[in-house]
Design goal:
The chain is mainly α. It has one domain. 73% of the residues lie in helices and 5% in strands. It is built from 15 helices and 8 strands. The strands form 4 sheets. It has a two-stranded antiparallel sheet with strand order 1-2. A two-stranded antiparallel sheet has the order 3-6. The protein has a two-stranded antiparallel ribbon with strand order 4-5. Strand 4 and strand 5 form a beta hairpin. The chain is globular. The N and C termini lie far apart (77 Å). The structure holds protoporphyrin IX containing FE. Protoporphyrin IX containing FE binds next to helix 7, helix 8, helix 11 and helix 12.
Length: 453
Amino acid sequence: MGNEESVFFSRVLTELTLSFHIIYATIGVGVPLMIMIAQWVGIKKNDEHYILLARRWARGFVITVAVGVVTGTAIGMQLSLLWPNFMELAGQVIALPLFMETFAFFFEAIFLGIYLYTWDRFDNQKKHLLLLVPVALGASFSAVFITIVNAFMNAPQGFDLVDGELVNIQPLVAMFNPAMPTKVAHVVITAYMTSAFILAAIAAFRLLKGSDHVYHKKALFLTMKLGLIFSIGAAIIGDFSGKYLAEYQPEKLAAAEWHFETEGEAPLMLYGILDGQEVKYTITIPYALSILAHSDPTAEVIGLNDFPEDEIPPLYIHYLFDTMVTIGVLMIMVSGLYWLGRHMRWRFIHSRWYRWLIVAGGPLTVIAIEAGWWYAEVGRQPWILRDIMKVPEAATTSGHVDTMLYLFATLYLILGVGSVVVLRRMFRNNPIEREIADREAEVREGTRKGGDH
Ligand code: HEM
């Protein structure tokens, strides 16, 4: 296999691994916070339904964590095997957050284990809830540290390259690079948003399938409220991400917006097609690109014609950007209307079509996560380390990457199907009605035994 082929297969394998891993990683970051909030509401309101929500979500969460760990390990391994030249350089500068990510994960895993095995062991439920704090923190900090590594790839700093030698290495300067604040914030908040809407979709689906249980209604109400808060947060931070790009990676923003000429009063182009440099059939929002880039409707936005041709990212990222933003805005509207509808007692929010819309929100936000990552990664092309190392320079020359690709694709298929089957069985075999009845019986038994003594 020639170098071109090994670069090609390395890229496909990395894309496949990341695209698969990100689904489980996103759930892994967001769901612990949802569990914590549900249990906290349950304790505060003395409402067993919310406590049960926390219990059931925690059980499902364990399965997704397991898949996240396997695929996360695959990424670590593939980084070294497929991109050895990148790891040799970057490893010396940015290894610190990579290690810290592992520690954050251990922190999370240890407390998750204790949390799961100590249900009903505490007389004071608040102490049990406290165990979730390190779980949620560990999960979010895993995302923070690993996103810092990705931010470094977009805005490398904290070292000098003299005759190919790395000197003056400053790991903390490398970590606190200009891409870090917006990337970290956007990744964490969109993980919370996605987890809220996936859990909302499950609750809405149960209601559509005939359950009229108040447990699912409470689950829907809580998750839609959280979804609304986090989706508004995602859009606000997304706006800051746009401003970061305009300043530090203008080619990524210009490619997403098919913005060729550097000019002021730049409009935002939604959808459409590209014919050479002519943009057709788009929805044009006047001044919006200048506002997204610089908070000023007249500000100048750098166009693609100012860059060498071989440093312009693929222009299909326009569709990825549009997909992400469209879903973000749609979910603000769906959850905002739900929240308003609850207050105004609008009946349509309980209608079947509206519930189906909420069900669709689960997979749609996962698509937004995928689109966001593909946009961020493809938009960095041709660089693996911006302005320093191009992707082909970083890749392995091994002749066996294609075999690895087939093997890993099979593994992900087994893990994907396996995790869905296990999760479905887990909840089907223990429906909420039965779990509530069992818990009531346990409480009665406990009271009776207490009375006998
Ligand atoms: C609603 C308005 C939104 C705006 C204006 C926005 C903007 C952006 C921008 C400019 C980037 C590129 C950042 C970079 O490369 O440094 C980005 C990346 C990303 N977006 Fe969004 N986004 C929005 C909504 C969403 C939603 C709803 C999701 C998912 C639920 C999402 C998920 C992501 C992800 C995972 C990335 C890659 C990580 C990163 O680079 O920050 N975004 N977004």
